[in-house]
Design brief:
The chain has 2 domains: 1-28, no CATH class; 31-86, no CATH class. It has 1 helix and 4 strands; from the N terminus they run αββββ. The protein has a 4-stranded antiparallel beta sheet, with no helix packed on it. By secondary structure, the protein is mostly beta strands. The N and C termini lie far apart (42 Å). The chain has one helix at residues 10-17, and strands at residues 45-50, 56-61, 65-70, 75-81. The longest helix is centred in the first third of the chain and has 8 residues, at 10-17. It is globular and about 30 Å long. Keywords: Signal, WD repeat. WD repeats lie at residues 45-79. It comes from Nelumbo nucifera (Sacred lotus).
């Protein structure tokens, strides 16, 4: 899989390749970080790191969890519950 085949990264590649003009348009669906037992609970993501091959991202959130998202499959693959705040 080439990096430019990940749709939402395409915007950044366009910026790098064509700095004189930029056409911004929505080219992807939102990533769904919900877990089956989430219900209506919502949360904020404070940090995101892409894997070296661009196939996954890891996100830290305010629910004290770390999420691993498979970009190729477009699905959440792992939720790690972190420690509680003292």
């Amino acid at each position: 899989m080439k990096l430019h085949s990940v749709p939402f990264l395409q915007i950044f590649l366009e910026i790098l390749l064509h700095r004189t003009s930029l056409l911004v348009q929505e080219i992807h669906d939102g990533l769904d970080f919900s877990v089956d037992d989430d219900g209506e609970y919502s949360f904020g993501i404070f940090s995101v790191k892409f894997s070296n091959d661009g196939r996954e991202l890891v996100a830290g959130s305010n629910d004290n969890s770390i999420y691993v998202y498979d970009l190729c499959e477009n699905k959440l693959t792992l939720r790690i519950s972190a420690h509680s705040v003292l």
